[in-house]
C-alpha cells in the first residue's frame, strides 16, 4: 500500500522539474494525480510518462494566474473524482536582474505565477476540502523565502509571501481539518535553475561556484524534494501545520566557508 492510496492530488507546474518529480512520486504512492502546466505539449508528455506506473494521472493546460482557468480546472477535477485531497502549489517563474533593471512587466509576471497562482489554487480547492473535513496544501517556497538574492529580488519577495500565506491558511482552517505547509528548497537541478545559471557570463563556472557553496558540493535533485512532498502530504506529517521544511543541503547552516579549498 502507498502512503497516498485513494487520494486525489493536483500538482501545478507539473510538466517539468520539481513538479514532475512530485507528480511521479505521488502516483507511485497510490494517488490519483492531475498535473497542471502552462505548456500543453510538455504537460501531456509528463502525464503520459507517469501513467501506468501507479495511480491514475490526468493533465490540464492552464496559467495558474488565470482566475477563470483555475476555477475550470478545479471544477473538472471535482467532476471526475468528487474530491481533492492534496494541492501542491509548485508553479513558478523567475526574472533574473537587479531591482533597478526589472520592469513592471517582470514584476507582474513573477508575482502572478508564484504568489497569485498559489492564492488562486488554494482558494479554489478549500471549499471542497472543508466540506470533506480534511485536506493538505503543500506550497513550494524556497531558501529565497528566508534570505534575499541580488539577481532575484521579486522571486524572493514572492517566496517570502508564500510563507506568509502558508501560515495564514494553516491557522485559519486547521480546526476544520486542513493542513498547509511549505517546502523551502535550495538550488535544484531543474530547467528553471539552469535559466538562472545561463543568465551569467560563464554558466558552467557559475554553476560550479554555486555547487561549491553547498557542504556536499552539489545541488539537489528534484526527486529529493519530491520525497519530502510525499511525507508532508501523508498522514506521517499529521502534526505539521503552518510551517516550512528546509531542504537546502545545509547551505543556510553557515555564514561562509573559510576552511575548505
Number of helices: 8
The biggest beta sheet is recorded as: 7 strands, parallel
DSSP helix fraction: 40-55%
Mean pLDDT: 95
Structural class comes to alpha/beta
Radius of gyration: 18 Å
**Beta-strand percent range:** 5-15%
Measure the end-to-end span: 47 Å
What does this entry look like structurally?
With 261 residues, this protein is of the alpha/beta class. Helices cover 46% and strands 15% of the residues. The chain contains eight helices and seven strands, in the order βαβαβαβαβαβαααβ. A seven-stranded parallel sheet has the order 3-2-1-4-5-6-7, sandwiched between helices. β4, α4 (104-132) and β5 (135-140) form a beta-alpha-beta unit. It is globular and about 55 Å long. The termini are far apart. The relative contact order is 0.14.
Describe the secondary structure blueprint for this structure.
Layout: E1 8-12, H1 17-28, E2 32-37, H2 40-50, E3 57-61, H3 67-81, E4 86-89, H4 104-132, E5 135-140, H5 153-173, E6 178-185, H6 191-198, H7 203-213, H8 222-233, E7 244-247
Helix pairs in contact: 1-8, 3-4, 4-5, 6-7
Give a quick summary of the entry.
This protein has 8 helices and 7 strands. It is α/β, with parallel strands linked by helices and 261 residues long.
Keywords:
single chain; alpha/beta; 261 residues; 7-stranded parallel β-sheet; 8 helices; 46% helix
